[in-house]
């Protein structure tokens, strides 16, 4: 497989990363990447959106690496509401939504019955992908460290197929995250890879596009996607199934 052409999941010192966006961009250039997305979480005031976008635009002027304005946002509840205001979201090219320990009904106030929890998870994700601002599910199905952890093999195939169909229809990408294994400490890495690659195959069969990211929180981690390549190989994915980050509008 040819080298992966971009890194769409990098945290900088604008949030919880160790290095500046400038240093991370230099790292991307050193790795030979064509594009990056600095997907720092939305944890700032809406009025600061312009400042962040201006910083990224200024960095891009002097670099051969394309900089795609991106932001991560938590999913608030089963209704698929987001922490980022709609007006701010419209100013970024990539809106990467994800479940968290704060997601009502999934990360907190978790129902006792498994059936109800599964309903909450899939209703939440279905509502999220139908949100007009969202175009990526970040580290999707990251359920292994939540209060009621579920492994990939516990997720009903029919519900996964329904979600995959919705993501295809709404043109929402599925992130292949280099640190996906971290979310499942109860599984060995080989077992997680086996289970998760089966999930990835369901989304691949539905025609869903994938987007790749390192999850780097320092410049040295930019472009490190060896585990993503392993997932892609096990799931039988081709580079043609990846979102072309250089053409994201």
How would you describe what is shown here?
By secondary structure, the chain is an alpha/beta fold. The protein has a single domain (6-247), classed as Alpha-Beta Barrel (TIM Barrel), CATH 3.20.20. Helix content is 34%, strand content 14%. The protein is built from seven helices and seven strands. The chain has helices at 21-31, 49-61, 86-89, 114-129, 157-170, 189-205, 226-235; strands at 6-10, 35-38, 66-74, 94-98, 136-137, 173-177, 210-213. The protein has a seven-stranded parallel beta sheet. The model has no long low-confidence stretch (mean pLDDT 94).
Number of helices: 7
The helix content is: 25-40%
Spans where pLDDT lies below 50 across 5 or more residues: none
What is the strand content?
5-15%
Shape estimate: globular
Number of strands: 7
Which short descriptors sum up this protein?
seven-stranded parallel β-sheet; globular; about 250 residues; 7 helices; TIM Barrel; alpha/beta
Quick rundown:
The protein is an alpha/beta fold. It has one domain (6-247): Metal-dependent hydrolases (TIM Barrel).
Topology:
Elements: E1 6-10, H1 21-31, E2 35-38, H2 49-61, E3 66-74, H3 86-89, E4 94-98, H4 114-129, E5 136-137, H5 157-170, E6 173-177, H6 189-205, E7 210-213, H7 226-235
Parallel strand pairs: 1-2, 2-3, 3-4, 4-5, 5-6, 6-7
Helix pairs in contact: 4-5, 5-6, 6-7
